[in-house]
Specification:
Largest sheet of chain A: 7 strands, mixed
Strand order of the largest sheet of chain A: 7-6-5-8-9-10-11
EC number (chains A, B, C, D): 3.5.1.10
Shape of chain A: globular
Oligomer: homotetramer
Number of helices of chain A: 8
Catalytic activity (chains A, B, C, D): (6R)-10-formyltetrahydrofolate + H2O = (6S)-5,6,7,8-tetrahydrofolate + formate + H(+)
Pathway (chains A, B, C, D): Purine metabolism; IMP biosynthesis via de novo pathway; formate from 10-formyl-5,6,7,8-tetrahydrofolate: step 1/1
Family (chains A, B, C, D): Belongs to the PurU family.
CATH superfamily of the largest domain in chain A: Formyl transferase, N-terminal domain
Keywords (chains A, B, C, D): Hydrolase, One-carbon metabolism, Purine biosynthesis
Helix content of chain A: 25-40%
Chain lengths: ~290, ~290, ~290, ~290
């Protein structure tokens, strides 16, 4: 939690010999004290992934110069290398999109207040005004963007949403039970930054009313899935999932209640990992260095 | 475990006032000491379900007379009443259908040997001969029924399978990773007695190679499902499910290995509940008084 | 959830034949439609426990008359019978005792606001003033009762606490990370109504700083326990427990963060079951008809 | 599972800058292709731990020469460095110690037969003869070493046990529900190689009859713990733990049955990690690179 400031390096590239040595030597030459390091060589895709966190106090240069120097290392490793260098002392910004159900909003505001998220929640935007009061009670701005009931007429609302969200330049756009399907251009625009919580254990029960679907099928566990938003509905790369046991005595309303606890946990974990640069997306899948 | 002998009454019927009183009074009038009782009123279907276990020593009459007398009670309750009276001292019979993968077979033979199942495993039938030795080491008969690779030519094999299984008159026919899809007539013939273990968290990943499907989708949990076999593939009433956590470092082979542990547990639980008359099927769903 | 109003009957007594029949017949004679029923015959103690929920609309008489009539039934069953009849339409009252850590408070206020608890939180009392703002933001009264650092001088504070709590006549007094050990007389005074959340999987790590104890021992799971408060520290009847996985990479601060999620869930479940009259205490143990 | 052959390097030492770079450069200079790498810098103890698995086919030299060369690297890193180099193609040897309860034995024999353990089970030694038949059915030698009922007279039995076990020169001595407390000299002699499965969630319920202790306390979860054996009873470094839910309806015999499933899983996981050199012991705790 109250970690000392860190520089976090993430990198993905086609695997070959010597990458770890190259990065480790680069960091050691700077005197960098590594506090966390994780690697993954994916036999299926032939890609290599790593995340390394260095105690910022152990390195004499600032994050900008570190980034500049690391660019040379990354270029040496190969032309397809995808990488980033983050400074954990620069607090990130989150915008939450909500509708009427407040449990995820409430949970995230509480976590932010308790210092559990390495970010500030800069704004909450609702397609209904219901959650304005609880948002403002936390000192957070709330914007109401109404959405017409006719899907064909929602274009202006999405345009307004985009403009509002972008005005905060957020590191994460969280659909905290937003209940509106983002149009393809918004999915592309926020690619890699928009996280959704779906109230089922995907790929089961895609789309609307998953608890009703779960009840009808008679499953013995219900779940929730945190995933990146892509143009294909509920099919983006999965960051985190979890389940809870139900039985024949649980009505849909009981599933809704119990499911909330899992939704909150799964979204909070997924968002924290995203904000701590622990999630590397590759194709339709994620590497999560939790 | 080593329970004293019990009479187990199960009943399902359209719900109405007084059913519990009627059954409880019937049992009390016989001096029956109730050791377990469970009820479920299903608001969705309007049906009522119960399971009651009575200490057999507390009742003077035998199971046949108890069954005869209870028929009158059941008739009074209503014409749609589905019920049964079982004597737990009559050990049940199980036939296992297997292919090449032995983990579920091995696990169930071990549990039967340890007295954990209220049943004997009377025979194992394989479409491959691979598991004959381990089966015979437990003193259990093994039958090899070869299946042609062309699905169109499997009719005689299924006929032989049916005859063999029926010769044991089993209370449960367990597809312990059998890998053959039963034809509709066999599904109907063994309806309510045939249990399958599917190596995914249904309804996700129906059909072949579910671990490969799970790997491709990048899910963070894998599961297994024990369900009754019906004509629609992997769509029968679910008895039990469970999951285990996986991550990006797990190849398909790791999922196969970890999944085995869940398959074994889920099948063992589902089978035990079936054999202890704890599972009441209603439509596409189950009530499990575990 | 938004259940129709119910009368809930709970009963515990030495087991003997005919108890179920007696209660069920009593309810059936009143036309009572049973929506939930659970029984437990405890072989170890020889006691019988039941909880039955009846649709209030199916019975013509009010809860007071029902209670009066049931008293006769209970007396017939035996002199040691412990029983109660509750009306779920009478909303219960909760008082929370807190210190500085706000996660359980925040979670319970959120659940109450979302209609998830069958109760109102009538007051929050803190031995520190830190959580006053968040409490008042929910429109709930907050009282600050300072506790001297010298344990020998805390008598007047406990007296003031007792008076304040009792002024709300609560159905549950919840020690939501209160961090003060109640004196024996308060334990007795609130017996069966005071619930504590302990941040370990009891009986492991009784007393202070359980996460530090867990870290030192190198356990691979950490947990939380909701229990009734008794004079013996952390030894009261357990209502609910759960755990979460940790590993060598988790510092004490990580355990504290992860543990909070389990504390919140376990306390919320335990409190809901208590408020729904699902918990029957017998000696040092509980029967929980969840 | 059918992994290509690997060289596995494990190392623990006081943390300082440059260790990762030194090891990674060493491996890269040999052309080593790293298939798995894990690091842990322990802020509490100030120690650093790593485990790296290299594709053996990517390195021209054999394991002996690799070990010799790595000794130089380890010496450079510091005098307190603890390290090892293993060749995964050299199958390890396991000896199991058992008593009368066969579930863990049965489970491990099944896993070994299925190729799930990177080891052969070379012998089973029982203080009772009960499990001889099932052991021999797997083609594994069984030795019966009787233990007198008087603890004071068990010296010769332990001496015989030691001689027998040592004759197999095992990489792991597994107390698979052995039920005898090893004397201090045997704990020391097999230090780091002897694994026990204790049927509770340690540190709760140390010693005899933990399920009876759990029942008496009324816990809502029961567990199992796999740990290295040390002279202090049930206090050795923990490798793995897990739990399963129980409730008021579970008698001790039900806990025993359900607990078996957790004991099997926990022991199998702990043993596999030990055999794959994933467990680094430091003081009373373990680092498990699972």
């Amino acid at each position: 939690m109250s970690h000392a400031s860190r520089y976090v390096v993430t990198l993905g590239c086609p695997d070959r010999t010597g990458i770890v040595a190259r990065i480790a030597t680069f960091l050691a030459d700077l005197g960098g004290s590594i506090v966390e390091a994780a690697y993954h060589a994916d036999a299926d895709s032939g890609w290599f992934f790593t995340r390394q966190a260095v105690d910022a106090a152990s390195i004499d240069i600032g994050v900008d110069e570190l980034r500049e120097r690391f660019a040379t290392v990354a270029a040496e490793i190969g032309p397809d290398t995808e990488w980033a260098v983050h400074d954990s002392s620069i607090r990130k910004r989150v915008v939450l999109l909500v509708s009427k159900e407040g449990h995820c909003l409430h949970d995230l505001l509480g976590r932010a207040a308790g210092g559990e998220l390495p970010a500030t929640i800069d704004a909450v935007i609702g397609n209904h005004p219901d959650l304005e009061a609880v948002t403002r009670a936390h000192g957070t701005p709330f914007h109401h963007v109404p959405f017409p009931s006719d899907p064909a007429e929602r274009g202006p609302s999405f345009a307004q949403l985009r403009e509002l969200v972008d005005s905060y330049d957020p590191d994460a756009v969280v659909l905290a039970r937003f209940m509106q399907v983002l149009p393809e251009d918004l999915c592309d625009h926020w690619a890699g930054r928009a996280l959704n919580i779906h109230h089922s254990f995907l790929p089961s029960f895609v789309g609307a009313r998953p608890y009703h679907q779960a009840f009808a099928r008679g499953v013995k566990l219900i779940g929730a899935t945190c995933h990146y938003v892509t143009a294909e509905l509920d099919a983006g790369p999965i960051v985190e999932q979890d389940v809870i046991r139900v039985d024949h005595a649980d009505a849909v309303s009981d599933m809704v209640r119990q499911g909330r606890d899992i939704e909150k946990l799964v979204l909070a974990r997924g968002l924290r990992w995203h904000l701590e640069d622990r999630v590397l997306v590759h194709g339709r899948k994620t590497v999560v260095f939790s």
